[in-house]
Amino acid sequence: MSDIDIRITGRAGRITFTRPQALNAMSYDMCMAVDAAMRQWRDDDEVALVVIDAQGDKAFCAGGDIAALYDTGTKGDFAYARRFWRDEYRLNAFIAEFPKPVVSLMQGFTMGGGVGIGCHGGHRVVDDSTRIAMPECGIGLIPDVGGCHLLSRAPGYLGEYLGLTAGRMAAGDAILAGFADHFIPREKWADLIEMLEASGDIAHVAAHALPAPPSSLGEMRADIDRHFGGGSLQAILDSLSADDSDFAQKTRAVLARNAPLSMACTVEMLRRLRAEDATIRQALDLEYRFTWRSMEDGDFLEGIRAQIIDKDRNPKWQYAGDTGPEAVPDAVLNHMLAPLGADALTFEGENRQMKIGFIGLGNMGGPMAANLAKAGHDVTGFDMADVTIAGVKMAGSAAEAAKGADVVITMLPNGQILRAVAADIIPAMDKGATFVDCSTVDVDSARAVAQQAEEAGLLAVDAPVSGGTGGASGGTLTFMAGGSDAAFAKAKPLFDIMGQKAVHCGAAGAGQSAKICNNMILGVTMIATCEAFALADKLGLDRQKMFDVVSTSSGYSWTMNAYCPAPGVGPQSPADNDYKPGFAADLMLKDLRLSQQAAESADADTPMGALAQALYAQFVENEDGKGMDFSAMLPRFEKRGHSE
């Protein structure tokens, strides 16, 4: 991704924002890429710590990229923004709770979404250029991304002051307010990063730090605490109005420009969070209640219009009187901060119910959908056949199953049908939802559908599976996924329910490419394994003795050791059940044909793949292989002589 550089260097997981021309503003894809990387690094013993930094001198991250939120919100589509905030807030909590040290180096502007990324780790570094702020009340929002948690823990009533005024914190201010830990001059950052990468020892951060610079906030503490401790926006405004000091009059003028509803809710949120000594999760839950309603019932869209779109700096706020903010009724505050019920924010380790559309409920898709429903997800399915799947509600059409879904999964016979279904369901899906195709199809179809989905504002993953019907029923499939980091991150929790392993293979089409290559190897090795058993029979070699030798020597393979085609030998397999299909020979032929289609398209020489395709075509179309397991090649070879 050109906007972010994610890699492992030495002992450090490295995340660098690389869009300085946009002040490193945080997009949804950037957010989900960070999430995906950190979830992988959490369990990677080679990664001792995480370092987050940014290119450019002006900003670490100046906030969220809100143009897409405005575009969808003004069209009456609130789902995209809600999904953005939900996933961003989950990432904020994940960073705060990360079990390994997280180092953030924050130069220049660090605002909004940048605070959510940079200010929740345990080792937050600032320099002389740092300016940290929570300016959300100026655009009709509230200090979110966990900002209210940080503000509620600031000394005295600095939180109320910073949250309502959007005051910019220099290095000393940020350390005083609890948004940063260490002051390290910028010229030392490169050396610090190099030492962290080489050693994985977090002690280098403190060793590089200098004493914190003076804080202007500290000098204003008496005035701030006197005026901002009243417990409500109206009490703060009344206190400032009664004081003719320079501080009071300037501060009241700043508040007069911001959204009264946002400021009133901010004060109420900080009061609640401070009283409850709340956790980061509790703070994010409270923030999400407001942001979830902010477009429909709040001033967020008007704030973006005035500040970002039209830039007239003249927003028409609710509760903005001629002489300044008016009192916001308690009933309105209670509504904006009321629990969301089924729409409430959830986190890792909690029950995250998704609304899932599942299209294609055959031998593979049916058990996969059932496993998702069993895990607590709300699954609506559709299939051309009249089927009943435990826990799955049935829709009358594919588009009906896809409407309003967080994720739509397809499991379809071929690329032509996939293209047709995609053309039907993509227009019905909400922008920001995820389209996961688990079919095994040609690479060109996978890429075409992914492009169509992305152009419609969806996340797209091609994720064919390996493991057969047994793996589908048992939830032990392997997923080979292609698509963006953000799309893979969204689908990964569902892969974890339906399977035992998911590998992100690359961009769109990479999942199909991996599946095709894998199954070409599988088809070739199964033929070789069956040929070897047939040869052993005619040489008078006992099958069990052959298995004992080959399974522990250089002939070792999955088709020998895990899926042996000889009945009564090795672990139980379809050979022990009259070759009733676990993976049908028909499907192997389909996959081998896809491999040769891809080989022709890529100008690749695959003679063994071509021979395997020809043998399976003969077996399925001209012999008795149709409807049999692909390992039923063994009885075929048993009957044939050398010249046949």
Keywords:
single chain, 644 residues, alpha/beta, 2-enoyl-CoA Hydratase, Chain A, domain 1, Rossmann fold, N-(1-d-carboxylethyl)-l-norvaline Dehydrogenase, domain 2, 3 domains, nine-stranded mixed sheet, 13% strand, elongated, NADP binding
Q: Just name the CATH architecture of the largest domain.
A: Alpha-Beta Complex
Poorly predicted ranges (pLDDT <50, ≥5 residues)? none
Gyration radius, to the nearest Å?
30 Å
Number of domains: 3
**What structural category do the secondary elements indicate?**
alpha/beta
In total, the number of strands is: 20
The CATH class of the largest domain turns out to be: Alpha Beta
The total count of helices amounts to 28
Shape: elongated
Average per-residue pLDDT, rounded, comes to 93
- Write the CATH homologous superfamily of the largest domain: 2-enoyl-CoA Hydratase, Chain A, domain 1
Distance between the termini: 54 Å
How much β-strand is present in the residues? 5-15%
Domain 6-phosphogluconate dehydrogenase NADP-binding: 355-506
GO molecular function, one term: (3S)-3-hydroxyacyl-CoA dehydrogenase (NAD+) activity
Pfam family, one: NAD_binding_2
EC number: 1.1.1.31
